[in-house]
Amino acid sequence: MDKIQIKNLEIFGKHGVFPEENVLGQKFVVSATLYTDTREAGKTDDLTKSIHYGEVSHFIRRFVEEHTFKLLETVVERLAEALLLETPGLEKVTLEIRKPWAPIGLPLETVSVEIERQWHTAYVALGSNMGDKEAYLRLGVEGLKDTKGCEVQEVSEFLVTAPYGVTEQDDFLNGVLKLRTLLTPRELLKRLHEIEGEARRERILRWGPRTLDLDILLYDDLVLDAENLHIPHIEMHKRDFVLKPLCQIAPYVRHPVYNRTAGELLDALAGEQG
């Protein structure tokens, strides 16, 4: 991905753990690498097709001047989030904030914090087999739309499917959505559980009835096996009620473990089921 770099932007801010730092202020030095696609701007000489580094520099200055935080970590985290939310075409940012006059009582050139943050693509499965099933799925979609740092890009049709695992229960309504998000996998999982809670989801029986079930299927090309979180979803390649709606919106998305597209996984499952 192409990069636009802003180096050593000097700003006077009021950030620090000591009260006098929040009142008197001091100099901070900010460097940013903006990841975007500059191809069209380069071919057309049209600034509107790129990111205006002058406007971004002024945005950084205003943010650092108008807010007060104790920690450099907070300044850089909040600034990265604000840039990604407010700058069209910005896919990823690397930010470093230096504090040349850090009051530690020792000779010191500078202290700095550097982070890298970006937009991610996730696919989330939705399911319900209690009450007004469609209303619950809509609640899931709208809950993510209303979440800061989340953009719902596509939603599949909702499909009626037979129950999986525990079969003596009502049919399910299932779907899949494509999500652009700044949340980490664990932050996203926490948010999904919060939305399930708003639907009064109760976790009593595995594969049992539920008002709303939200599962992370894929998150970029990440492979993660941790307690209570597995990405890709360990059962997705066995579930046609997941693969069918996924294929509606992303038939060519590739499973990072099996190295097969959603369409290929669905065809293979259909062959196994005869």
At a glance:
This protein is α+β, with helices and mostly antiparallel strands and 274 residues long. The chain contains eight helices and eleven strands. The chain has two domains: 2-118, GTP cyclohydrolase I, C-terminal domain/NADPH-dependent 7-cyano-7-deazaguanine reductase, N-terminal domain (GTP Cyclohydrolase I, domain 2, 2-Layer Sandwich), CATH 3.30.1130.10; 120-273, 7,8-Dihydro-6-hydroxymethylpterin-pyrophosphokinase HPPK (Alpha-Beta Plaits).
Explain the overall architecture.
This protein has 274 residues and is α+β, with helices and mostly antiparallel strands. It has two domains: 2-118, GTP Cyclohydrolase I, domain 2; 120-273, 7,8-Dihydro-6-hydroxymethylpterin-pyrophosphokinase HPPK (Alpha-Beta Plaits). 33% of the residues lie in helices and 29% in strands. The strands form three sheets. Strands 5, 6, 7, 8 and 9 form a five-stranded antiparallel β-sheet that branches. The chain has a four-stranded antiparallel β-sheet with strand order 1-2-3-4. A two-stranded antiparallel ribbon has the order 10-11. β10 (224-226) and β11 (229-231) form a beta hairpin. It starts with a strand and ends with a helix.
